[in-house]
Amino acid sequence: MEQTAPQTKAEALGRWLLPLAAVIVFGLWFYIAPPGILGKADAVGYAVCHRIDERSFHLLGRQLPLCARCTGEFYAAGLTLLFLAFASPKQSGMPGWKLGAPLLLFLFAFALDGSNSYLYLLKQTSAGAFANIPNLYIPNNTLRLFTGSGMGIVLGAILYPAFNGSAWRNHDSAPALNWKKLGILAGGIVIINLFILSEHPVILYSIALVSVAGVFSLLVLVFGMVWILMMRLENEFDSLTQMWMPFLAGATLALLLITLIDLLRLRLTGTWGGFPLG
User: Fold this and answer.
1) Helix, strand, coil fractions of the chain, as percent rounded to 5
2) Is the dihedral of CA 214, 216, 217, 221 positive or negative?
3) How far is CA 30 from each of CA 36, 46, 226, rounded to the nearest angstrom?
4) pLDDT range class, residue 2, cuts 50, 70, 90
5) What is the pLDDT of residues 37-46, one digit of tens each?
6) Cβ-Cβ contacts under 8 Å for 25 (sequence gap 6 or more)
7) pTM reported for the whole predicted model
8) Distance, C-alpha 244 to centroid of its chain
9) How far apart (Å, rounded) are the C-alpha atoms in residues 65 and 47?
10) What is the pLDDT of residues 175-222, one digit of tens each?
11) pLDDT digits over 120-171, tens only?
12) 58: which strand partners?
């Protein structure tokens, strides 16, 4: 009974302050973000990605909101969360050691290709000793897409059960991901990647929005868990409708972070475009 009172007060305060804060933050971000749906998507990508033009896919000559690697990473993470939400509704177990092996392989491929790509970038943009840095291979957007999407599966596979374990009162301790689910998920993402590589405008437009939604969904879950821990509401929820405050708080904090990074980067670079190579 002693713990009920402060939680009730916090919830009562949140019912008034959270919606107000959400409106203010959304209004500020909407005001500073470029116009149009893709312009708003650019503003989300701007907060998490270098957006270098040469390392991005293009929709009818227009750069996508995220580079090829981040496009793969965040669309795959978002789809992993969505897939597990249907396939493993309240399961909170992390992948075991055996299932961890392919996930570690995805992580290793992401780190290897990212490091090789970064070294190649140094060779392109720097003189002197950097020009002689060896590369394992010439990086390309196909490898960036595939290694990024593998990392996206890893992020979703870890974050989803972590959220379930902190939120649900009666969560299932069984692993949220098993071999069968991983096979279905990885196979589906490989097929989607092949569609992306066709660079059909409809596919690229769709994946631009899905990848940005993936960015936002990851941030909402992370900040939603932070809110749950701050309010001492661990394992207090029985339905999604009861979670409106953590989700709203997570969305508000996520958009606030995006807005602050957007403003800082815009002040430093003076452009919504990618980091210059020269």
Assistant:
1) 75, 5, 20
2) positive
3) 10, 14, 25
4) very low
5) 999 999 999 9
6) 252, 255, 256, 259
7) 0.90
8) 20
9) 10
10) 999 999 999 999 999 999 999 999 999 999 999 999 999 999 999 999
11) 887 777 766 666 777 788 899 999 999 999 999 999 999 999 999 999 999 9
12) 63
DSSP state of 136: S
Of the CA atoms within 13 Å of residue 44, those in its CB half-sphere come to: 27
- Show Cβ contacts of residue 23 under 8 Å, excluding neighbours closer than 6 positions: none
CA distance 180 to 188: 12
The amino acid at 96: G
For residue 172, report the phi and psi dihedrals to the nearest 5 degrees.
Answer: -95, 125
**Dist CA 158 CA 177 (whole Å):** 9
Query: What SS3 class is residue 186?
Result: helix
CA atoms within 13 A on the CB side of 136: 11
In the prediction, which pLDDT does 273 show? Answer: 84
The residues near 147 (Cβ < 8 Å, ≥ 6 apart) are: 69, 72, 106, 109, 110, 112, 113, 114
Interatomic CA distance for residues 127 and 70, integer angstroms: 27
Residue with tokens 């509401």: 233
**Residue 136 CB contacts under 8 Å (≥ 6 apart), including other chains:** 112, 116
**Which two tokens mark 127?**
């003189």
What's the chain's length in residues? 278
Q: Could you tell me which residues come within 8 angstroms of residue 73 by beta carbon, excluding any fewer than 6 positions away?
A: 110, 148, 149, 151, 152, 155, 214
